[in-house]
């Protein structure tokens, strides 16, 4: 698929500076862009590439002042970083969604699929499932009995959705995602063994959620585990039973939230963060990488460390930790001098 610089500028509400008929057939990184490619400049340290590389078009800020002329056509926009996401979507959408049902899929007669759906080979759709319009179900997906899948949702290969779970509209679940496996519930017995606590709730994933590969969202013991509208969860994350995961909150890889935890809206959870169960992380909270959150966190906080604490305080502690050996030696010297 190819576009002209003018077509892309119109989509982005940008201004063309140069050849508006320049043909573009691939997005590229600015370090690697070549003939026919479109790239973007958001970080000033990469500015030299726009003079060195031969691109078809470059997305730049409206107020960028050039040191000298460039060969490429410039498309001036308010926010190049945001606009490149729109360009990538434009190229991705141009390939068109898959349609049709593989003869090697298994769809229960009681299941109901909407218009223009795709069901790949070896996909299994259970009893009384309801699937919306334009849903993409790739090979080897399992959708259990009594599930609901909303319009325009994509289930990539190997996604497993257990019984009675719900996935909203415009969601993307990447390969290997498991929704609705049992929560980790076991009651200790007097003899040291454990008795399993049946998990009879479900998972509700609201609209516009994206979940990365091999992430697990466990079903509730009772009630629902909820991932709220617009949340984005990276690969290899864990959302435990009865968690409420906030709207427009993002979580990076290898992070997890234990049972019955509440994570607020518009939070940023960095990589390898652990959030203990039965606590509340407020709205608009940022949790730095490798932090261990062990108590409630107030709205608009930035926390760091394990146990997590206000970032400014933890940074001072990090500075002091680097001086521990020196401090220890000073104390030993003082003790000797006192004797």
Summed up, what is this model?
This protein has 339 residues and is of the alpha/beta class. It contains five helices and 40 strands. The protein starts with a strand and ends with a helix.
Largest sheet composition: 12 strands, mixed
Low-confidence runs of at least 5 consecutive residues: none
Quote the distance from N terminus to C terminus. Answer: 83 Å
Strand content: 25-35%
Q: Provide the residue-averaged pLDDT.
A: 96
* Overall tally of domains: 2
Envelope shape: flat
List keywords for this structure.
single chain, 339 residues, alpha/beta, Udp-n-acetylmuramoylalanyl-d-glutamate--2,6- Diaminopimelate Ligase, Chain: A, domain 1, UDP N-Acetylglucosamine Acyltransferase, domain 1, twelve-stranded mixed sheet, 5 helices, 28% strand
């Amino acid at each position: 698929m190819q576009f002209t610089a003018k077509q892309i500028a119109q989509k982005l509400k940008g201004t063309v500076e140069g050849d508006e008929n320049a043909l573009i057939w691939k997005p590229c990184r600015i370090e690697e862009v070549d003939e026919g490619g479109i790239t973007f400049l958001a970080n000033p340290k990469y500015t030299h590439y726009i003079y060195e590389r031969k691109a078809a078009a470059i997305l730049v800020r409206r107020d960028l002042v050039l040191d000298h002329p460039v060969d490429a056509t410039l498309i001036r926009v308010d926010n190049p970083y945001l606009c490149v996401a729109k360009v990538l979507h434009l190229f991705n959408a141009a390939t068109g969604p898959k349609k049709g049902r593989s003869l090697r899929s298994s769809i229960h007669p009681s299941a109901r699929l909407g218009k223009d759906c795709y069901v790949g080979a070896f996909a299994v759709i259970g009893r009384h499932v309801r699937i919306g319009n334009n849903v993409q179900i790739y090979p080897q997906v399992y959708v259990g009995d009594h599930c609901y899948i909303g319009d325009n949702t994509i289930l990539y290969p190997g996604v497993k959705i257990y019984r009675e779970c719900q996935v909203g509209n415009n969601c993307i679940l990447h390969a290997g995602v498991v929704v609705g496996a049992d929560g980790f519930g076991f009651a200790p017995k007097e003899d040291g063994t454990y008795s399993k606590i049946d998990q009879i709730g479900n998972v509700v994933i609201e609209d516009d959620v994206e979940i990365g590969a091999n992430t697990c969202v466990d079903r509730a013991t009772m009630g629902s585990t909820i991932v709220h509208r617009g949340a984005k969860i990276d690969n290899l994350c864990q959302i435990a039973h009865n968690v409420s995961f906030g709207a427009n909150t993002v979580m990076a890889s290898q992070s997890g939230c234990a049972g019955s935890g509440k994570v607020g809206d518009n939070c940023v959870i960095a990589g390898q963060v652990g959030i203990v169960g039965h606590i509340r992380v407020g709205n608009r909270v940022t949790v730095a990488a490798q932090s261990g959150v062990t108590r409630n966190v107030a709205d608009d906080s930035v926390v760091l460390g394990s146990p997590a604490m206000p970032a400014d305080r933890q940074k001072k502690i990090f500075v002091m930790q680097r001086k521990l050996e020196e401090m220890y030696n000073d104390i030993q010297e003082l003790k000797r001098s006192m004797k």
